[in-house]
């Protein structure tokens, strides 16, 4: 970087050129944020004390996606009543239905569209402690 600035200063580049270059980059960046993008967003689901990491594919405006990507805390609180669970197996575990999880996450993300939910191998113990 230092050599680039040294080269440009030796060739007497105008300061107004650098200002215009910075403004052009800023306008380009703001314009690109207005486009619709599809990204993978990792989300931690807290389901009544049980935490699960789920990978979601979301689609939305660049500004909204940057807001969600910049948030360090991506915990979503869900209740059992919001999800459809399968009947318990021999070990007493229930699996979460992918469609109900997608619907519950879509309610939480109002300004982006949740396209799909990845890792849906979520099993909940049906035994109460």
If you had to describe this structure to a student in words, what would you say it looks like?
With 129 residues, the protein is an alpha+beta fold. The chain contains 4 helices and 6 strands, in the order ααββαββαββ. It has a 4-stranded mixed beta sheet. The chain has a two-stranded antiparallel sheet with strand order 4-6. It is elongated. The mean pLDDT is 81.
Unreliable runs, pLDDT <50, ≥5 residues? none
H/E element string? HHEEHEEHEE
The profile of the biggest β sheet is:
4 strands, mixed
- Alpha carbon gap, first and last residue: 61 Å
- The number of helical segments is 4
Mean pLDDT: 81
* Class of secondary structure makeup: alpha+beta
Helix proportion: 25-40%
What general form does the structure show?
A: elongated
Strand order of the largest sheet: 3-1-2-5
Number of DSSP strand runs = 6
Strand content: 25-35%
Radius of gyration: 23 Å
Brief synopsis:
With 129 residues, the protein is α+β, with helices and mostly antiparallel strands. The protein is built from four helices and six strands; from the N terminus they run ααββαββαββ.
Explain the layout of strands and helices.
Elements: H1 2-10, H2 15-33, E1 36-47, E2 50-61, H3 62-70, E3 75-78, E4 93-95, H4 98-108, E5 113-117, E6 123-125
Parallel strand pairs: 1-3
Antiparallel strand pairs: 1-2, 2-5, 4-6
Features of the shown structure:
129 residues; four-stranded mixed β-sheet; two-stranded antiparallel sheet; 6 strands; alpha+beta
